[in-house]
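Z., the sequence and structure:
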Amino acid sequence: MTQEIKPVAQEIKLTTDQMKLMSLFQNITKATARDCIEDEKRDRIIFVVNEGKMGLAIGKGGAHIKALQNKIDRAVELVEYNEDPIKLLKNILNEKHIIEIKISERLDGSFQANVEVDGAKKGVVVGREGRNAEKARILARRYFNITYVMINSKEQAFEW
């Protein structure tokens, strides 16, 4: 059963450290981050920016991101937010390699996103050691209560 998913109504709570990182992000990039996720497991900070602000956040030749990474001494990744869960997942996972995304409700009431990708590009979509797949899972759960993200090609499936 395919169902339209609406953003989770619950408020996203930020820690003091996350708010400091968002302030630093804004000072360096001149773009406003709408969210900040500290991914300790992968030693990275994920900033979520509003639609249309990605270029401003990155800066010419990636200058803003490089400056931010040097300042905080951690990898920085950006995601362009979208209120539509399918578009957000496409933003995270590289839209040009995605064939189709379907969101369905599981028997236990949780939601699952099934992402069908070009088999030859599945590794690029999943990312080294599953970085992109994990980022998709974190953000899909945080914003839309999607607890499973399955990345499939005709050849094989990959679950996060």
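The mean pLDDT is 91. The chain has six helices and seven strands.

Let me know what you think.
H.
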